[in-house]
Amino acid sequence: MPTTIQISNEMRNQLSALKMFERETYNDVLERILEDMREINDKTKIEIVKAIKEIESGNYKTHEEVRKELGF
Questions:
Q1: Could you give the CA distance from residue 24 to residue 69 in angstroms, rounded to a whole number?
Q2: Is the pLDDT of residue 39 over 80?
Q3: Helix and strand tally (H, E) in the chain?
Q4: Deepest in the core among 29, 33, 47, 56, taking most CB within 10 A?
Q5: Distance (Å, whole) CA 42 – CA 49
Q6: Of all helices (H) and strands (E), which one includes residue 59?
Q7: How far lies 67's CA from each of 61, 64, 70, in Å?
Q8: What does the alpha-carbon distance between residue 20 and residue 22 come to, in Å, rounded to a whole number?
Q9: Which pLDDT does position 37 carry in this prediction?
Q10: Structural domain boundaries in the chain
């Protein structure tokens, strides 16, 4: 049974930007987002936290540094 929800104009704009095609419904967009969230398993969550800590500690290379190393 369909229901109506209130969202801000900003949220509506963000959801519109996530549409894969013009006539895709907001329901479809939200279903895709929820599906993507469910696919993130515990191992991935741990890897994300580790990556964030590395970035925060300065342990990363910029695109420019990688380009120089690869000779581009």
A1: 43
A2: no
A3: 4, 0
A4: 29
A5: 11
A6: none
A7: 10, 5, 5
A8: 7
A9: 80
A10: 1-39, 41-72
